[in-house]
Amino acid sequence: MTAEPRRWNRETWPIAAAMIQYPNALPGGRSVQDQSVEEWAETLADVVDAGFTELDPTDSWIRLADLSPARLDAFVALTQSLDLTMPAISTARRSVIDAKHGDNYLAYGHRVIDTAKAIGAGSVSFGLFEALTDAQKKVLWFWTVDGAKNPDDTATWSKAVTRIRELGRHAEELGIELALEMYEDTYLGTAESSVRFVEDVGLANVGINADLGNLIRLHRPVEHWQEMMAKVAPYAKYWHVKNYTRTEDPASGVIVTHPAPLESGIINYRAAIRLAIAHGFSSPFLCEHYGGDGLSVSAANRDYLRRILPRDQGQTS
Predict the structure, then answer these.
(1) How many CB atoms lie within 10 A of CB 106?
(2) Number of Cβ within a 10 Å radius of residue 311
(3) Dihedral (C-alpha) 302, 308, 312, 317: value to the nearest 10 degrees?
(4) What is the pLDDT of residues 114-153, one digit of tens each?
């Protein structure tokens, strides 16, 4: 099964709010999984008040795939009452090759795909990055400390390809696209590696979540964003967008980065998006931002995207 053709312009392009600023664990040991519909509504009211009409129920906030059918129906009914649609679901830190939990995360991935179909989402984002380390949790910006790394061996690479292909075929049967998130020290940690991985998977519905922000924020040398974008644009699908300032001092070797609004960071999203659209990109966007009032910055980023997306109908997928 293939997805229905999609034609969007700057007014209709799905631009979802991320929920990364809302944790799953609540004070007192409770979980968002166990909240009442009324409590969910209090959180989603923030999203509505920020002007969003699309939501990504990011699983760092709520795992829709782990709700009972009745609870899932209640969540969907709530979003509908708030005039929110859910064009996509993003997963985080549930790698299918995690040494301890990989088998469980693979099974979870299949449930996420089924859940996406149930709620009408056409895209799912998966990644091969793992839980934050204790050292990462102790610093202001977790990306300034190295985290877990995907093993540098062909057997684990092949295992990752096989498992993502399995998820991709499941998604393909349901008319859903699968986007693999670029993230440091994983098999999608560079543009070249991301392209090679997706080509090894070899499915038309499996592409790259071109989250270049995950790479340009690193306090280490990285490929220029334009060079990365040129490589991944032909494979771009559901896209997490965020930006950072980046200062490099060649004399001392010091590199400093900081979260920034889309229009004022080092990545020129006007150019990046035009390049992706020229290659046929026709997937939703997700606005993310770390630090401060991330939801409000994401709302400003949404408005920026609507100014730079095509006035007329977008590309057909």
Answers:
(1) 18
(2) 8
(3) -70
(4) 999 999 999 999 999 999 999 999 999 999 999 999 999 9
DSSP state of 221: -
DSSP single-letter state for residue 139: S
Q: How far is residue 210's CA from residue 236's CA, in Å, rounded to a whole number?
A: 6
Burial code of 131-145, b = ≥16 C-beta within 10 A, e = fewer? bbeeebeeeeeebee
pLDDT of 315 over the 60 cut:
no
Rounded distance, CA 218 to CA 142, Å? 10
Asked whether 169 and 155 are in contact (CB, 8 A), the reply is: no
Q: Which residues face 78 on adjacent strands? A: none
pLDDT band at residue 314 using 50, 70 and 90 as cut-offs: very low
Q: 140 — phi, psi (to 5°)?
A: -65, -50
Q: Outline where the chain has alpha helix (H).
A: 37-49, 69-81, 102-119, 134-138, 154-173, 191-201, 213-216, 225-232, 269-278, 294-308
CATH numbers and ranges of domains, the chain: 15-308 (3.20.20.150)
pLDDT in tens, 36-70: 999 999 999 999 999 999 999 999 999 999 999 99
Are 182 and 214 in contact by the 8 Å Cβ rule? The answer is yes
Residue 24, both tokens: 């799953």
CA 32 to chain centre: 20
Q: Where are the alpha helices (DSSP H) in 99-216?
A: 102-119, 134-138, 154-173, 191-201, 213-216
Q: For residues 246, 196, 239 and 107, what is the CA-based torsion angle, rounded to 10 degrees?
A: -120
Q: Calculate what percentage of the chain has a pLDDT beyond 70.
A: 97
